[in-house]
Write a structure and sequence with these properties.
- By secondary structure, the chain is mostly helical.
- The protein has one domain.
- It contains 7 helices and no strands.
- Helix 1 runs antiparallel to helix 2, helix 3 (46-73) runs parallel beside helix 7 and helix 4 (86-104) packs antiparallel against helix 5.
- The chain is flat and about 45 Å long.
């Protein structure tokens, strides 16, 4: 399967999917592709490769396994409860693809490799945060957004120290498991894990 097609389908599933496992699988595909694209730059030194391997392990295996474990403990979280109907989500996914293509044709940005893929992944991550009401979906959306940012960093700042990537990955993972803890707390009060529940906390 063509790389762009794989990214297109995975990104669209983030928006269109209503089941957590499907959306999580789409994120893993995007994270694997992002890691594969930046892998050559990690071969410049043993240290860079070690950091790359560690971050890839955390983003592709550790974080998804943590989410799968949470789903086993909290079955209601398997449904993302999108705030938009399926036709509207399909239109949004198409709109994101069109917007990403338009960004890639901006003259000032035209020289950036993979710009269309970067813009598409970032917009899909943001779109997932907007579309789904489930708190767990927001965690996965942030991880997907992180995959897009990783690609952007690799293309826009290839000499960026690997320590920054490592720090960003740890931040993402800490946020993931803090998010899971919050979701579990809300699950005890609201089986739908709807973000509307947060409004009850307003004073």
């Amino acid at each position: 399967m063509n790389l762009e097609v794989a990214v297109l389908l995975a990104g669209a599933l983030l928006i269109v999917g209503a089941r957590t496992l499907y959306v999580l699988a789409a994120y893993v595909v995007l994270a694997v592709i992002a890691s594969a694209l930046i892998a050559p730059s990690a071969l410049v030194s043993p240290t860079a490769f070690a950091i790359f391997a560690l971050t890839t392990l955390m983003k592709v295996i550790v974080a998804p396994l943590g989410i799968v474990w949470f789903l086993r403990e909290n079955p209601p979280a398997a449904d993302l409860h999108p705030s938009l109907a399926l036709p509207q989500r399909l239109l949004l996914a198409i709109g994101i693809a069109v917007a990403a293509a338009a960004i890639a044709h901006v003259p000032a940005l035209a020289e950036i490799p993979l710009l269309r893929l970067i813009a598409y992944v970032v917009l899909c991550g943001i779109g997932m945060l907007v579309v789904h009401r489930n708190l767990l979906a927001h965690v996965i959306g942030l991880l997907a957004l992180g995959a897009g940012i990783t690609l952007a960093g690799a293309e826009l700042a290839p000499q960026l120290p690997e320590s920054v990537e490592l720090g960003a990955t740890f931040d993402a993972l800490v946020g993931t498991f803090i998010g899971l803890a919050l979701v579990r707390a809300f699950a005890a009060q609201n089986p739908m894990l709807d973000v509307e529940s947060l409004r009850k906390l307003r004073g």
